[in-house]
Amino acid sequence: MKQNNTNEALLARWLEGNLTAEEREELVRMDGLDELAQYLRDFEARRLPPLDKEAMWRAIAAKTIEKTASKSVTIKTRQPRLFPMAWRVAAAVALLLGIGVWLFSYVGIERYTARVGETRLVSLPDGSSVHLNAGSRLTFSPWIWSQRRRVNLEGQAYFEVQKGNAFSVVSDHGLVTVLGTKFDVYDRDNVLKVECYEGEVTVKSHMASDTITAGQGVKVSNGQRAKLSLQAKRPAWMSGKLHFAENSLREVFEEIERQYNLDIQTTQVDLARRFTGVIPKSDVNVALGMVCSAMKLSYQKTDDHTVQIRPAR
Hints:
Radius of gyration: 29 Å
Strand content: 25-35%
Oligomer: single chain
CATH architecture of the largest domain: Sandwich
CATH topology of the largest domain: Jelly Rolls
């Protein structure tokens, strides 16, 4: 709520023409205001430069005196209209268009969240579907969906996209673009992983651009990029399992926390160690037991939501 009030205050200051350069940059970086940024630049580019009225009248007076002295004629002057109607109309149109884009692309955003310990199915306007994994968030604008199919993702989701114009998934560390296919996107911390289960997917990250097809995946983490080979027909987490392939214990425990709504505390555990395996989502004790047994650790529940993990004796 505080952020919304800040955004509204910035917008109001812009309309009054009182924005500083820093505030203007903050305004155009607001979520959903990429189109408004262009209108803002176009509108401000068309503003007339500040007028020095005193200098203008001095120049007019000087011309009048000069012509009077040379031709002995009287020249009447009148104050020019500083803002012709064309400029006023252009400014009004730019303002209305900018506000309209802001209302449609910012206020009209739909938001969906899968809380810790739950998954959620989201239906998109074109019939495509998104399965949100625990601790994930999805946003998109239905107002411009027919012109631009784009969603913003935080966390992990499996997409089943209907064929049509380009469909894009924007996350913190990459951009995934398809036409119509089935794929999974994982973007948490510094890890971006995309798996393709049907069709063709283009993945753009800060490192490179990759095109993957069914049965392939790509993972970008800590400055390294690796291709993946998939055997399953859909992500393991959608089949009641959690699949890990050379994941750090930190990543493993964070995923278990999201899936089971736990607080895992570790003592003298090297969280950089790697774990590979498949554990069930249905039983937290079995899941913790499998990980701890493989990594020579022990665990103890201190209450319903807290687990203490330390090296096995």
